[in-house]
Automatic annotation (TrEMBL):
UniProt record, GO biological process: glycine decarboxylation via glycine cleavage system
Protein role: The glycine cleavage system catalyzes the degradation of glycine. The P protein binds the alpha-amino group of glycine through its pyridoxal phosphate cofactor; CO(2) is released and the remaining methylamine moiety is then transferred to the lipoamide cofactor of the H protein.
Subunit annotation: The glycine cleavage system is composed of four proteins: P, T, L and H.
GO molecular function: glycine binding; glycine dehydrogenase (decarboxylating) activity; pyridoxal phosphate binding
CDD domains named among the record's database cross-references: GDC-P (cd00613)
The species this protein was found in: Nocardia alba
Catalytic activity reported: N(6)-[(R)-lipoyl]-L-lysyl-[glycine-cleavage complex H protein] + glycine + H(+) = N(6)-[(R)-S(8)-aminomethyldihydrolipoyl]-L-lysyl-[glycine-cleavage complex H protein] + CO2
Alphabetic keyword roster: Oxidoreductase, Pyridoxal phosphate
EC number: 1.4.4.2
Name assigned to this protein: Glycine dehydrogenase (decarboxylating)
Gene: gcvP
Similarity annotation: Belongs to the GcvP family.
Domain Glycine dehydrogenase C-terminal: 756-877
Modified residues (N6-(pyridoxal phosphate)lysine): 689
Necessary cofactors: pyridoxal 5'-phosphate
Length: 936
């Protein structure tokens, strides 16, 4: 019998599923649906609009046809998006390697040292090239990084002003995103031409400029930055990292913050993303950085070790007072960019930059007096009065896309893929013949003002051959646990496998080499794919309209709340500014609400984890006139189906509020219930959870926002249109990875999606039943069922034995497993989510490991091992620790082969012992100097 894709995606076969169902006491998956879900939300109408499932090869053929429908023109549009030549060694061994793309955020640093080192390389690369002290581990894109820079300037500075000064030559999409973010926060934007070096009258808390600018011009900003500082304002600069290999970086001109993108460092344009943005600051502002920051600490043996530091999960602590709602990054793309820099090194990058500039200089030489700016790097702005459209059309006929600035101006952007023939065709499009020596005499030294060194660390000097890079990538990935090695049972994160057939198309040129601002007629294939996906996701969720623009769950949250805010304002309800959020909610909910100018009020939860409807009624009564919305997660953050969700939604609607249903746990609803039908007005969806886009070590993610019809007009618009309320730099966000979700839905079909959801629920309940006697399950629904995840309560165990969730998490690495989610949403607990992708053998292996760990805890309780020295407290154990002096009360064999040397499961060897987190926060090291610098 031919197996369908759904059969291969879903782990348990029919015999295994029968055993799972018998253990949890239901006869079938259909019976499980009626037992686990409240009858008030169960939707048996099916997903009829989805096409019948296709085979893997059939879907690849369909995607190939869509890719071929696109026109891959030579892109010379620029605006922060450039063609780039990704080294094949990085394509095959990083971008297409499941050891890299199936990894999770490195919250368990001992088994994440490879990707942490790669991210530290990224941070070093950015700080070196910008001339700043500290960089974070990536942002979502350049425009959102600029908006984060804006809020950083405001909170870090001493000015009381609410005015922000921005240069006229910022990228237009960056201006739009800054405008979207500024308005709810009461920030007034003042735009001016700052190239003269003088400031407008009045006070400003910050100044934002770009180098090179959208027009291509390069400006020495030193005097302006000094003037801003004298006025009490901080300064942020957008910097092109390739240009910074030649030109004096903003950090050396006096900037306080730098932002930008690393897209042109080997990451394809992909119709807009995903790409790794960046944010870098002076040391004084390091603790103000949003997002993730990799630093250096020490392990239990005193060896240097990498870890996430500072604000890594600050939303869970500071909530509405968090510096940002971003809890993810663009890790996979940041690593590609860092390895691109490592492969080329400083000299290689400088050579690429010179070649890019020489081609731009050749264009300028051919255009003569039409050139507007004499100082430029890669982009030439040409003045052709009344003739711009004709020039762009002529270039288009030659297979080249230029940027139409206005009726009188055309911009031409050169990049790594530009060749002499492109230059000649561009100049011919202006009606000017390119003379053979037009480029001769162009002097790249004219912009080569940089004197400082960069990328001198061994990470950027050792790996310039393919052999060296191949081995470096392998050595790093061997230090990590990803889905290619083990189940990753992270609750709230849905680590399902990303199928190869889903992943394969993302590197095809028909998707990967599209500029996000390419002419519409060039992109019918990907636009068809996008329209399909919007339609399918609306059907699956029960909403009426979907925007794929948000490029992370946090951005989807923000876009959804922004839509609610604008809806109330348009109705004259500008007093509705209160957002109710249950105490169990993910911290980004509160942070997102604060970002759109809402006041957060917390609703209590009952002892069983459900939202306390009595407290909700009281909060509604207290804030009735000001109620904007409630944000809930369904199934709840506690991993159960709350039976009163429909009543909850009605209470809020009756008070004039809107209902935001966080889509983090949608993998427990697809094919069974639809948020848009049981009371939701808006949801964001995590495609990197429910719909198979890979986590990539902590990014990329996609967070589409879905709404009911009355909110559809408030979805984010085109970022090239000022005032469009866009939330990401590209109209369709991270478009190049949307084929993954398209392929998943297309191959699964309606019944496959439903079976996947029910299998995930069944597997979670199986784990809960098997482990409840060893680690009590904290929350269940009215019928004793959990949803797609369960919370194991270790708090009494810790009180009685001193063994903590950290001890259990680190010990699991010795057993070959990644730990579940620790202490969220309840401190002292583990949240376990198996997903539908894991078969029963793997699930039973995990259960056996947990039971064995409980046996080790009992040994501690019995006094066989002291609480300060036992296999759990000593975990994880490295190979090096075995050959060192051994003075523990347990054996080496117990340490590293807890289930016996002959056990069939492949041994995972952590590369470091347990890492000292407090040491790392006290001694923040965020770039990679030689390791001997840490010997003291």
């Amino acid at each position: 019998m031919t197996r369908s894709f759904a059969d291969r995606h879903i782990g348990p076969d029919s015999d295994e599923l029968a055993r799972i169902l018998a253990t949890i006491g239901v006869e079938s998956l259909d019976a499980l649906a009626t037992t686990a879900l409240p009858a008030t939300i169960l939707d048996e109408s099916g997903l009829g609009v989805l096409p019948a499932p296709a085979s893997e090869h059939g879907v690849l053929e369909e995607l190939a046809a869509l890719a071929q429908a696109n026109t891959v023109a030579t892109s010379m549009i620029g605006l922060g998006y450039y063609d780039t030549l990704t080294p094949p060694v990085l394509v095959r061994n990083l971008l297409e390697n499941p050891a890299w793309y199936t990894a999770y955020t490195p919250y368990q640093p001992e088994i994440s040292q490879g990707r942490l080192e790669a991210l530290l390389n990224f941070q070093t690369m950015v700080s070196d090239l910008t001339g700043m002290d500290v960089a974070n581990a990536s942002m979502l894109d350049e425009a959102t990084a600029a908006s984060e820079a804006m809020t950083l300037l405001r909170r870090a500075g001493k000015s009381k002003s609410d005015r922000l000064l921005i240069d006229i030559d910022l990228f237009p999409q960056t201006k739009t995103i800054i405008g979207t973010r500024a308005e709810p926060l009461g920030i007034e934007l003042v735009e001016a031409d700052l190239s003269t070096g003088s400031l407008p009258e009045g006070e400003f808390f910050g100044v934002i400029v770009q180098t090179p600018g959208a027009s291509g011009r390069i400006v020495d900003w030193t005097a302006l930055f000094a003037a801003a500082h004298e006025r009490g304002a901080l300064v942020a600069a957008g910097a092109d990292l390739l240009a910074m290999t030649l030109s004096t970086p903003p950090g050396e001109q006096g900037a306080d913050v730098c932002f930008g993108t690393t897209q042109r460092f080997g990451v394809p344009m992909g119709f807009g993303g995903p790409h790794a943005g960046y944010l870098a600051v002076r040391t004084a502002f390091a603790r103000q950085l949003p997002g993730r920051l990799v630093g250096v600490s020490v392990d239990a043996d005193g060896a240097p070790a990498y870890r996430l530091a500072l604000q890594t999960r600050e939303q869970h602590i500071r909530r509405e007072k968090a510096t940002s709602n971003i809890c993810t990054a663009q890790v996979l793309l940041a690593i590609v960019a860092a390895m691109y820099a490592s492969y080329h090194g400083a000299n290689g990058l400088r050579a690429i930059a010179r070649r890019v500039h020489e081609h731009a200089a050749a264009v300028a030489a051919g255009l003569g007096g039409a050139v507007v700016h004499s100082a430029f790097f890669d982009t030439v702005l040409a003045h052709v009065p009344g003739g711009a459209e004709a020039v762009v059309a002529k270039a288009k006929s030659k297979g080249i896309n230029l940027r139409l600035v206005d009726a009188d101006h055309v911009a031409i952007a050169c990049d790594e893929a530009t060749i002499d023939a492109h230059v000649a065709a561009v100049v011919e499009s202006f009606g000017t013949a390119l003379t053979p020596d037009a480029g001769a005499g162009s002097e790249p030294d004219a912009i080569e003002t940089r004197t400082s060194q960069y990328l001198t660390h061994p990470a950027f000097t050792r790996h310039h051959t393919e052999t060296a890079m191949l081995r470096y990538l392998r050595a790093l990935s061997d230090k990590d646990i990803a889905l290619d090695r083990s189940m990753i049972p992270l609750g709230s994160c849905t680590m399902k496998l990303n199928a190869t057939a889903e992943m394969e198309p993302i590197t095809w040129p028909g998707f990967a080499r599209l500029h996000p601002f390419a002419p519409t007629e060039d992109t019918p294939g990907i636009r068809t794919l996008i329209a399909d996906l919007e339609h399918w996701l609306a059907e699956i969720t029960g909403y009426d309209a979907v925007s794929l623009q948000p490029n992370a769950g946090s951005q989807g949250e923000y876009a959804g709340l922004l839509a609610i805010r604008r809806y109330h304002l348009d109705r004259g309800d500008d007093h509705r500014d209160t957002c109710l959020i249950p105490s169990s909610a993910h911290g980004t909910n509160a942070a997102s609400a604060a970002m759109v100018g809402m006041r957060v009020e917390v609703v209590k939860c009952r002892a069983n984890g459900d939202v306390d409807l009595d407290d909700l009624r009281a909060k509604i009564a207290d804030h009735a006139d000001r109620l904007a919305c409630i944000m809930i997660t369904y199934p709840s953050t506690h991993g159960v189906y709350e039976h009163e969700v429909a009543e909850l939604c009605s209470l809020v609607h009756d008070a004039g509020g809107q209902v935001y249903v966080d889509g983090a746990n949608l993998n427990a609803l697809v094919g069974l219930a639809r948020p848009g039908r049981f009371g939701g007005d808006v949801s964001h969806l995590n495609l990197h959870k429910t719909f198979c886009i890979p986590h990539g070590g902590g990014g990329p993610g996609v967070g589409p926002v879905a709404v009911r019809s009355h909110l559809a007009q408030y979805l984010p618009g085109d970022p090239l249109e000022a005032g469009s309320h866009a939330v990401s730099a590209a109209n369709y966000g991270s478009a190049s990875i949307l084929p993954i979700t398209w392929a998943y839905i297309r191959m699964m079909g309606a019944e496959g999606l439903r079976a996947a959801t029910l299998t995930a629920i069944a597997s979670a309940n199986y784990i809960a039943r098997r482990l409840d006697a060893f680690f009590p399950v904290l929350y269940t629904g009215e019928n004793g069922m959990v949803a797609h995840e369960c919370i194991l309560d270790l708090r009494d165990i810790t009180k009685q034995t001193g063994v903590t969730v950290d001890d259990v998490a680190k010990r699991l690495a010795d057993y070959g497993f990644h730990a579940p989610t620790m202490s969220f949403p309840v401190a002292g607990t583990l949240m376990v989510e198996p997903t539908e992708s894991e078969n029963l053998e793997e699930i039973d292996e995990f259960i056996a490991a947990m039971i064995a760990i409980r046996g080790e805890i009992d040994q501690v309780a019995a006094g066989v091992w002291p609480v300060t020295d036992n296999p759990l407290r000593g975990a994880p154990h490295t190979a090096a620790s075995l050959v060192a002096e051994w003075n523990h009360p347990y054996s080496r064999e117990t340490a590293v082969y807890p289930r016996g040397v002959g056990h069939a499961r492949p041994k995972v060897w952590p590369s470091v012992r347990r890492i000292d987190g407090a040491f790392g926060d006290r001694n923040l090291v965020c770039s990679c100097p030689p390791l001997d610098a840490y010997e003291d």
